[in-house]
Specification:
mainly alpha
């Protein structure tokens, strides 16, 4: 059974789903696991695309922030970093999640 592929954008989702269901019902039983494999592949592809978009968004934000900080003296950035470390440490102490001792390295 040949299926004429129409313009994908022109069909509403419910019509596409209906056509897919009809076509799958005509497949031999031994092909059904392949359909499931293909659907799983599409889901993984979507997740990969979502992650890539998120990475690109984070990279763009980091580039914007780096550009904003380009004129800030390094000593000022280090001082702010030290301040943030102390704020995080104090929050951990207040929450009872602090680890005793100094951090030396990974």
């Amino acid at each position: 059974m040949a299926v004429q592929v129409q313009e994908r954008v022109s069909l509403p989702a419910h019509e596409i789903i209906g056509r897919v269901v009809v076509e799958v019902t005509h497949l031999p039983q031994e092909d059904l696991p392949l359909v499931l494999d293909f659907v799983e592949h599409l889901k993984q592809r979507q997740e990969t695309l979502r992650r890539k978009a998120l990475v690109a968004e984070i990279q763009a934000a980091a580039r914007r922030r780096a550009k904003e900080l380009a004129s800030v003296p390094p000593a000022q950035i280090v001082a702010r970093f030290d301040q943030l470390i102390e704020e995080i440490r104090q929050t951990a102490i207040d929450n009872g999640t602090a680890i005793e001792g100094d951090w030396e390295s990974d």
